[in-house]
Write a structure and sequence with these properties.
Layout lengths: L5 E4 L5 H9 L4 E5 L10 H8 L7 E6 L4 H7 L5 E4 L5 H4 L6 E6 L6 H7 L6 E4 L26 E3 L8 H8 L3 E4 L4 E3 L2 E2 L1 H15 L2
Parallel strand pairs: 1-2, 1-8, 2-3, 3-4, 4-5, 5-6, 6-7, 7-8
Antiparallel strand pairs: 9-10
């Protein structure tokens, strides 16, 4: 049996979706603090949602090249920070929280170099690349580009759905998977059936 693949639901904006995610046993819930995203929330909404997250579910805040002051304002309601822009390793490391670094899979990326550059990150989140869009594209990338010997745990993102997650887990064997659009009825509004189906497919893939 393969190691259990952990699951993060990202882009949560509603109390009922947080409750559903927790009831399904996901490992982490993500809150987008970047205002240009269709799934963005304010620090006030983050506070209201974060207090509903039960123990042992990790609360993740997603930021994109944003001021340190904003991140510090959000810290009381977060367990983990996800940096999705061009932040330096020193910037990411200054907040006293575990953090992960998202990397978009542009053609010239060197993942071994990135793993060394962000050596203090808890993991690298790998997402599809589209110019000018830091994430949430709903697109996949060529999973064979991920080295099997990468020095950091891999969180696989980018266009994942219940239909392709079994193939993704089988091919990549990631530490975790991150899904947003693939479990939505509309941006920021999750679909309970899609959420449940995604969790079930991940569990089935991991049991093979």
């Amino acid at each position: 049996m393969n190691p259990r693949t952990r699951i993060k639901f990202c882009g949560l904006t509603r109390h009922e979706d947080v409750a559903m995610a927790a009831s399904l046993g996901v490992d982490a819930v993500g809150f987008v603090m970047w205002p240009k995203s269709t799934r963005s929330i304010t620090p006030e909404t983050l506070e209201a949602l974060a207090v509903r997250v039960p123990a042992f579910v990790t609360r993740v805040g997603l930021f994109v090249n944003q001021p340190a002051e904003l991140i510090e304002q959000c810290l009381p309601y977060l367990d983990l920070i996800q940096f999705h822009g061009d932040e330096s390793a020193s910037f990411c490391h200054q907040f006293g929280r575990p953090w992960i670094k998202a990397l978009r899979m542009r053609d010239d990326i060197d993942l071994h170099h990135a793993a060394a550059q962000y050596s203090n990150a808890q993991a690298l989140l790998l997402d599809a690349y589209r110019p000018g869009i830091p994430g949430g594209t709903g697109e996949t990338f060529d999973w064979s580009r991920i080295p099997a010997t990468l020095e950091k745990p891999v969180i696989l993102a980018g266009g994942l759905t219940a239909d392709n997650i079994a193939a993704a887990v089988s091919q990549v064997t990631p530490y975790a998977v991150d899904v947003s659009g693939g479990i939505e009825a509309s941006p920021g509004v999750k679909d309970a059936e899609l959420m449940a189906s995604f969790v079930k497919r991940v569990a089935l893939a991991g049991s093979c």
